[in-house]
Amino acid sequence: KPQFSTSLPGFSLEPFLKIGVTLAILQSFGIESHFGPQFVVSIADRDMVAQVLRAEGRTPQRANMESWQEYRDLRGRATGLISAEGEQWLKMRSVLRQKVLKPKDVAVFSEGVNEVITDLIKRIHTLRSQEEDGETVTNVNNLFFKYSMEGVATILYESRLGCLENNIPEKTVEYIEALELMFSMFKTTMYAGAIPKWLRPFIPKPWREFCRSWDGLFKFSQIHVDNKIKDIQSQLDQGEEVKGGLLTYLLLSKELTVEEIYANMTEMLLAGVDTTSFTLSWATYLLAKHPEVQQSVYEEIVNNLGKDQVPTSDDVPKLPMIRGLLKETLRLFPVLPGNGRVTQEDLVVGGYLIPKGVTLCHYATSYEEENFPMANDFRPERWLRKDNMDRVDNFGSIPFGYGIRSCIGKRIAELEIHLALIQLLQNFEIKISPKTKPVKAKTHGLLTPGDSINVKFADRK
Ligand code: HEM
């Protein structure tokens, strides 16, 4: 019965480990475990991760999605990109990838995202004025949750929710509360699928909550999609030319059914809020803790963009430190610390026969000294080497996954995070405050800040 322990902050594999791990697999960083009834081999060695991902066919299959599928069958709902498999997934991926997968596709969202950032900055002014020192903002996690939700909704629904307003409209308050509840319930209920069906009559709560949170998520998206359908119809009725973004395109092109659009909007909203907000929270925390790094990122902004110029996506390539900052934040705190695959065939990896279920533990991989010297240190400049910056095939850190089934929202997330960080640094010096506590990461499916992050946003002189 081998023991396994890791010094990664807040990360422990022990609960997942089971007796029967073979020594050979353990020696090569692969670990056998069970997720409920499922048998899984975990791989963290960079070259083996690369081998698994490079062997993927045309429709890679994500592991542990049975409970998502079961909910959709129960309610007669369609699957979205995260939960779909096979040809159904390929069809939707081909439609959506044309609209959001390249930096130039998302460049059109810069203006909308910048409007949300203006509100974010106003909100920071309001929040810090409520503190004694006039500078500290407590629980930036909550602030960035609202920013991320507003940002992604602007892109997905082409409408504003008002999450960052001082007096949030009552209806939006209900939505935010419902969504916060749903996201928090979702985390605790994501293991619903790990509980065998025969146990549900005895432990009914996780499955019931799981369905309830999905009901809420679908309802929320449906309201916004239906509003857009009404808008488009009234424009058509008045003989106007209909122009719009992603949702308008999807509704007009009819490449996806309306049910598929509901499902994809629901799953993209789910995938696009916590991921972006945790990453921004960590980036802010790391900048406050490392003023020397912050100074060099700030100087790069001032020298290449100026103190006041509002950035667009075209400016980001001029600011390699901002890109390095995001990459380094995600290396240290990848929101999805692991990633499951059901491989199409049994694979021989590193000389061992690996059966179909595989978990790729990129959180562990990204702390390997061999891949990243002084791996525990926060060093955005390590990404400045030209060969490092754009190498998605550098399997040492793949926070967005790799290949045809990787994150479809990567460019959206980058846009929202890069533009927000640039403007935050143009406006504020982010500093530790007496209220800043040491914050470790914790995992419950996602890797999240284990405590509230409190930092000062001091005016730039
Ligand atoms: C920092 C932010 C984000 C991170 C770190 C992240 C990470 C990931 C990862 C690791 C995957 C799994 C990839 C794989 O299986 O190989 C994924 C999938 C996905 N992400 Fe993201 N994500 C982020 C933001 C977003 C945003 C903003 C959206 C939507 C607007 C989004 C939508 C999706 C979708 C739909 C999938 C499923 C893709 C498919 O199966 O074809 N993500 N993401």
SSE layout and pairing:
Blueprint: H1 23-27, E1 30-35, E2 38-43, H2 46-54, E3 61-62, H3 66-75, H4 86-100, H5 103-107, H6 110-129, E4 136-137, H7 140-156, H8 170-189, H9 205-237, H10 246-253, H11 258-289, H12 291-304, H13 320-332, E5 339-342, E6 347-349, E7 352-354, E8 357-360, H14 362-365, H15 386-389, H16 410-427, E9 428-432, E10 441-444, E11 446-449, E12 455-459
Residues 62, 81-82, 93, 152, 267-268, 271-272, 275-276, 279, 330, 335-336, 339, 399-401, 405-409, 412-413 line the site of protoporphyrin IX containing FE.
InterPro entries: CYP11_CYP27_families, Cyt_P450, Cyt_P450_CS, Cyt_P450_E_grp-I, Cyt_P450_sf
Protein name: Cytochrome P450 family 27 subfamily C member 1
Keywords: Heme, Iron, Membrane, Metal-binding, Monooxygenase, Oxidoreductase
**In DSSP terms, counting alpha (H) and pi (I) runs of 4 or more, how many helices?**
16
What is the SS-derived class?
alpha+beta
Unreliable runs:
1-30
* Pattern of helices and strands: HEEHEHHHHEHHHHHHHEEEEHHHEEEE
Hetero ligands: protoporphyrin IX containing FE
Q: What fraction strand? A: 5-15%
Sheet with the most strands, sense and barrel status:
5 strands, mixed
